[in-house]
Hints:
Strand order of the largest sheet: 2-1-3-4-5-11
CATH architecture of the largest domain: 3-Layer(aba) Sandwich
Helix content: 40-55%
Radius of gyration: 25 Å
Strand content: 15-25%
Number of strands: 12
Largest sheet: 6 strands, parallel
Oligomer: single chain
Order of helices and strands: HHHHEHEHEHEEHEHEHEHEEHEE
Number of domains: 3
CATH class of the largest domain: Alpha Beta
Amino acid sequence: MAGIQDVAKKAGVGIGTVSRVLNKxxxxxxETRKKVEKAIEELDYTPNEIARNLIQNRxxxxxxxxxxxxxxxxxxxxxxxxxxxxxxxxKAMICNTSEEKSNEQVYLDMLSxxxxxxxxxxxxxLNIENYxxxxxxxxxFDTIEVEGEIPVITVDHKRGGKLAAQELLNAGCRKILxxxxxxxxxxxxxxxxxxxFEKTVKEAGAECINVYxxxxxxxxxxxxxxxxxxxxxxxxxxxxxxxxxxxxxxxKMAQLNGSKVPEDIRFVAYDxxxxxxxxxxxxxxxxxxxxxxxxSGVSLLLDIINxxxxxxxRITHEVKLIxxxxxx
Length: 328
């Protein structure tokens, strides 16, 4: 197997010149560059990526921290982030915290030891300061931005909540239930969608019932148990709003309990992951642009890694309402 010394010898140049060609930094004349590239091709030379990264103090690895990679929204976000990173020559290290603060801290401790070039995070059970202490470039999904420290990629959740409420109200709903987190950290931007949803429903003179679910708990069994309690406690609700998975769970259990959709109860889901579009009757959904969120996050993080200071610390994308049969 050829080494960098063999390439230098064949091209008639020094090892430093070969290194500059490989790393694309420093001046090398066009004629010399072509000789080195020809030698590389003829010798079928493969650079030692680990050694090169050590020299550059880079790993070309980006960590993606999510609370549950099996949950549809985080699964699609992670998939899109990984694709974007691959296009830019980076590898993804997926860190699944499994809803535990201790797991999240273990990952942060590991990542702070120069194992990655940057972090994209979609979970914050821990205090923001824990992330800042890693001294790594960080971009977050759905938190309040920390000026000069952590930029955030988000959507207009306030508009999303209003769209959902208006759709259910227009469908004739007067007693609407929504799921929201039992503990709602103020630094999460999606807090706005629940607040705006409730505000819009109440301003229309309708009733909004808030049912609080465990923070960062995306377990299907937990969701099913909460839904069962709701069906018993609130048998006369005529509208329901939550994330894709929760809506699909509620729809299934409501229909098994004898309710008709949308005659008896209407639904609006939030996120717009692929799983919601496989259902019948088709679900009305407020969709987040997950691909655009991922691309914005990756682009911004790589800019920071390469020394570019963000022009702004919050990038907000738009949501859109996609009408289905559950509100028709």
